[in-house]
Amino acid sequence: MSRLAALISQLCSDGVEFRPLKEVARIRNGKDYKGFGEGSIPVYGTGGIMTMINTAAYEKPSVLLPRKGSLSKLYYVDEPFWTVDTIFYTEINEDLISPKFFYYFLATQHLEELNQAGGVPSLTQTVLNEIRIPTPPLEIQREIVKVLDTFTELEAELEAELEARRRQYKYYRDALLSFDERMSDASKQASIRWTTLGEIASIYDGTHQTPRYTESGVKFVSVENINALYQTEKYITEEDFDRNYKNKPRTNDVFMTRIGSIGVCAVIQNDEPLAYYVTLTLIRPNSEVINSKYLKFVIESGIGASELRKRTLVNATPIKINLGEIGKIKIPVPPLVEQERIVTILDKFDALVNDLSSGLPAEITARRQQYEHYRNRLLTFKEAA
């Protein structure tokens, strides 16, 4: 029998007491931080740390609960902090509940389902205060925290390794595509043709009208689907697709984001119909001149990012690049055999750091699912009579 199972059998075999949240913690409102000088105390909003000031609102361990916005985004804080009015902080009764146990349990509660607002999602103290919290003996709470901390520390290590790999990938990709710097031989440099995208590809616009969505039909994609085109849950009718899309995507075309997010690409893998919004542009490369995957890599590289940045309307809301400007970006085009060599190298590296079905992303997803499974099991208790 594990130590945790033994403790539960010994200390609460008949179940544990559940208490309303208001009995184990006091919810406090955040407030404005302006007027304080710069310092080392983090100021939290619903999106995380906003700035650093020289004054703390609270200095004990606390769980921060969103009042508006992303209602399921909780924070555990064990150092001095400040919060603004979009997020609550909690004064926790540590004689009844471990702050970290309190955080882990609340993370299982799907707080977004408690939203009672019609506009921006929001939570009230009245609703939060009635959440029922299990309070097993502190010794059991500490043991559960120890187990769950092990999972979260492992995930953090994997996330850090993934971030390091992504930086390494970007560095290596940009080095491979910096032809002038890595080719000392003038004859080799001469084989690299610098040309505008418009000379070697056709560029098409997505629909500017929000479509009438249906439950099935032709898949509809926008900027939010760029990393998983075929997993979209939006559809339009085949009639609307045939009527409104003269330039239909086909295999080896390239989608590029152009509104909000600029320059993220996806190569279309098959001829399955796809309708696309104005936030995406469709690029159809001349296959006799440029490899589609090479085009994706070079647009996403430092070279492509620099060219796009020159033509991006950064003062627009959201930022965007106009369709007519996309064809003006200049990119290096080596012989096809060199493009294919580069693609082979970068494909392997890209899969390791970005492919959700393999490499580190897949391992992180598996660990997260495992963690959530054990967290939910460990934090499910029989209530005492």
What does it look like?
- This protein has 385 residues and is α+β, with helices and mostly antiparallel strands.
- The chain has helices at residues 3-11, 21-24, 99-106, 125-129, 138-176, 179-182, 186-190, 197-200, 238-244, 292-300, 302-311, 323-326, 336-354, 359-378, and strands spanning 18-20, 25-28, 38-45, 48-53, 62-66, 75-77, 82-83, 87-92, 132-134, 193-196, 201-205, 218-221, 235-236, 254-257, 265-267, 274-276, 280-285, 330-333.
- The chain is built from 14 helices and 18 strands.
- The mean pLDDT is 90.
- It is 38% helix and 19% strand.
- The strands form six sheets. Strands 2-8-5-6 form a four-stranded antiparallel sheet. The chain has a four-stranded antiparallel sheet with strand order 11-17-14-15. It has a three-stranded mixed sheet with strand order 4-3-7, with no helix packed on it.
Would you kindly provide a brief summary of this structure?
It is built from 14 helices and 18 strands.
Describe the structure using short key phrases.
single chain, 385 residues, alpha+beta, four-stranded antiparallel β-sheet, 14 helices, 38% helix, 19% strand, elongated
